[in-house]
Design a protein that fits this description.
This protein is α+β, with helices and mostly antiparallel strands. Helix content is 42%, strand content 20%. Helix 10 links the parallel strand 10 and strand 11.
């Protein structure tokens, strides 16, 4: 019966991780599944950050102490404080030993459960009112990735050798789930990333702009879109070759990324060809226009190319109701058309009037029939 329950627990952990849609959900499913399978009161999943020499906690579940957040931002421990990790990484595993789990108690080591004594583990157990813990190394792609930690409260049965062996199995199942999550994240990254510049792509902009406009309609959040066309790319391609043209696109992408960083949470993207955009959700329109102006200035200083034509549309401007992402995109695109036609060295802002800020109204926007397909916004109308 015990073996049947443990098999069911393994299946439940695997299913929980398979159902996860994000890394955080995957981490939580691994920790919760292990905690339940081992009848623990608390569990954590941590990753070994080799470049920083530390063990960083990704998630804490169960009966957490006051200083333990579910998804901590800065809970990390120097690896040198944990002698058993160093032993495992540099001695036992290197010599061909199996990555077996071990047990610690608040009273110190127990005969037959592990060799040695880890003061830091024991101190942590006592400080947080826990009686024992089992620690299982997580091995991913043949390398030590981190650890799965499950603890029981004072007074509960102490983990035994069978529990430690089972924890080793659970860590292996968790590793398989983490590997699947990594593959899915990489697939998502590729699906929403421009291969040449590393910026977001059109698909990502479509999705984020739709979400942003829905948020604007719900609570009035300011949404601003900057659409820009890199001037002179065809001349560079024809004169110097496409490899040089690609370098110009990459350099402009870096400039756009640098300027986008001036706006909290801004998304910068390459729409395709010589077209790029910046999406800002929250910052005032004036801040976005200043960044667009800086972008024009920096683009004009690039060694190749002929600067950039830049159009801005923001829900904070006099545009009338913005009920769809498509409308905001068309206004920004029309402003960019105007900037290109007038060879403006500064951004044109939809809805502004004056000699320095040409106005672009909805009536000025090109019709769907007259707009090249590459300029159409494919979101909801």
């Amino acid at each position: 019966m015990a073996d049947d329950k443990r098999l069911q627990d393994v299946v439940a952990l695997a299913q929980g991780m398979a159902a996860a849609h994000t890394p955080r959900e995957s981490w939580r499913a691994a920790a919760l599944g292990a905690c339940r399978a081992l009848d623990g009161g608390f569990a954590a999943l941590s990753v070994w950050e080799r470049e920083l020499g530390r063990l960083r906690v990704l998630v804490n579940v169960g009966e957490r102490a006051p200083d333990e957040l579910e998804f901590p931002d800065d809970e990390a421990y120097p690896v040198h404080q944990f002698a058993e990790i160093t032993e495992f990484l540099h001695e036992q595993w290197a010599a061909g030993g199996a990555p077996n789990a071990w047990v610690e108690t608040a009273e110190g080591p127990r005969e037959g459960l592990r060799s040695g004594y880890c003061h830091q583990r024991v101190a942590a157990l006592r400080r947080r009112g826990r009686g024992c813990c089992v620690v299982a190394p997580v091995v991913l792609h043949g390398r030590a990735w981190g650890e799965l930690y499950v603890a029981r409260p004072v007074g509960a049965a102490v983990f035994d050798r069978g529990d430690a062996d089972f924890a080793t199995v659970l860590a292996a199942v968790a590793a398989a789930g983490l590997a699947q999550t990594e593959r899915l994240e990489e697939a998502r990254r590729l699906a929403f990333t421009d291969a040449l510049t590393g910026l977001a792509n059109r698909r990502c902009v479509d999705m984020r702009l739709d979400e942003a406009v829905e948020r604007h309609r719900a609570d009035g959040t300011v949404v601003s879109l900057v659409v820009c066309d890199l001037n002179g790319l065809k001349r560079v391609n024809d004169t110097h070759g496409h490899a040089v043209g690609d370098r110009l696109l990459e350099r402009f992408g870096s400039v756009l990324s640098l300027c986008g960083a001036m706006l909290p949470g801004a998304l910068v993207a390459r729409l395709g060809g010589d077209e790029f955009c910046l999406l800002a959700v929250g910052p005032p329109a004036g801040d976005v226009v200043k960044v667009a102006d800086e972008l024009c200035r920096r683009a004009a200083e690039l060694e190749l190319g002929e600067g950039v034509a830049c159009g801005v549309a923001s829900t904070e401007e006099a545009l009338g109701p913005v009920r769809s992402a498509r409308r905001l995109f068309r206004l920004a695109d029309a402003a960019q058309y105007r900037a290109k036609a007038e060879r403006s060295a500064r951004p044109v802002v939809a809805g502004r009037e004056g000699p320095d800020d040409p106005v672009v109204r909805l009536a000025d926007t090109p019709s769907d029939e007259g707009t090249p397909e590459r300029r159409r916004f494919r979101g909801r109308g």
